[in-house]
Amino acid sequence: MDWRDQGALLSVRKHGETSVIIDVFTESHGRHAGVVRGGTSRKIAPILQPGAQLDVAWRARLDEHIGSYSVEPLRSRATVLSDRTALAGLNAITSLLTFSLPEREPHPQLYHRTQAMLDLLGVNEAWPTAYLKWELALLDDLGFGLDLSACAVTGSMEDLAYVSPKTGRAVSAEAAGEWADRLLPLPPDLLGVGSGVHDNVLAGLQTTGFFLTRWLAHALGDKPLPEARARLIDRLKREAQRG
Question: With CB atoms 3.0 to 4.6 Å apart as the test, which of 54, 56, 116, 187 could cross-link to 203 if both were Cys?
Answer without folding.
Answer: 187
